[in-house]
């Protein structure tokens, strides 16, 4: 089930700044060559990530789930002058392609790519983060929230992608996949946390914005 109708999506794209050429090519190459290309953030969500980053001007960003590098490049476009983005992915086969576009986008020195399981890599990151984008295995979101909480500065944000899980979150429980159930339990966890404020955006597949008070 599509959360947003095709017509509304086309309207949103029409009134959103066009996808930059490099990201358009990355988008195309992902659809031509890589498994599960629908995982890529895409035009509107990509511009949203850039705009959030430009509003915050973060010094440190963590992304969990690099895939082909699309969202990492979008987020890096708003980094502060001395800012740096860390991105993690378990799939080493994607490293060459994401790295090639990161270099072409001019972010080779400002984006560090980590290959491995996020749960193993996060504890090794000795940084205080302003912005975290969670976009990896759905069953892992709750654990990433806990692991990242102490590393997120007060007033910092976490954005979690796919929280509507293709609309499955509102189906009968028997019709929900395990990933949809994981998204529901993640949203419950965040909204029940009195250290946090949450906002669920019904953009694309749903993005939960979480602010650390
Ligand atoms: C939805 S895609 C990320 C899309 C990307 N953020 C974008 O918008 O273009 C999810 C990625 O998470 C990675 N992943 C899955 N489980 C992971 C784990 N335990 N640790 C790190 N990465 C993981 C997958 O290999 C996949 O590339």
From TrEMBL:
Q: Does the keyword Membrane apply?
A: no
Keywords, A to Z, come to: Methyltransferase, S-adenosyl-L-methionine, Transferase
GO MF terms on file?
O-methyltransferase activity; S-adenosylmethionine-dependent methyltransferase activity
Q: Which PROSITE patterns match?
A: SAM_OMT_I (PS51682)
GO annotation, biological process: methylation
Q: Does Lipoprotein show up as a keyword for this record? A: no
Name recorded for this polypeptide: O-methyltransferase
Protein species of origin:
Chitinophaga barathri
């Amino acid at each position: 089930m599509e959360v947003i109708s095709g017509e509304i999506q086309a309207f949103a794209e029409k009134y959103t700044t066009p996808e930059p050429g490099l990201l358009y090519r990355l988008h195309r190459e992902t659809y031509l060559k890589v498994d599960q290309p629908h995982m890529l953030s895409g035009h509107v969500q990509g511009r949203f990530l850039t705009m959030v980053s430009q509003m915050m001007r973060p010094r440190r960003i963590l992304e969990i789930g690099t895939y082909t590098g699309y969202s990492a490049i979008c987020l890096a476009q708003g980094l502060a002058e001395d800012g740096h983005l860390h991105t993690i992915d378990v799939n080493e086969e994607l490293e060459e392609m994401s790295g090639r576009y990161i270099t072409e986008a001019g972010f080779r020195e400002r984006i560090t790519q980590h290959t491995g399981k996020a749960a193993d890599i996060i504890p090794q990151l000795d940084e205080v983060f302003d912005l975290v984008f969670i976009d990896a295995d759905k069953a892992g979101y709750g654990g990433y929230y806990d692991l990242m909480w102490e590393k997120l500065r007060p007033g910092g944000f976490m954005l979690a992608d796919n929280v509507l899980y293709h609309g499955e979150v509102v189906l009968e429980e028997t019709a929900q996949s395990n990933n949809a159930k994981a998204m529901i339990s993640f949203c419950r966890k965040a909204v029940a946390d009195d250290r946090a404020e949450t906002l669920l955006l019904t953009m694309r597949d749903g993005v939960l914005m979480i602010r650390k008070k």
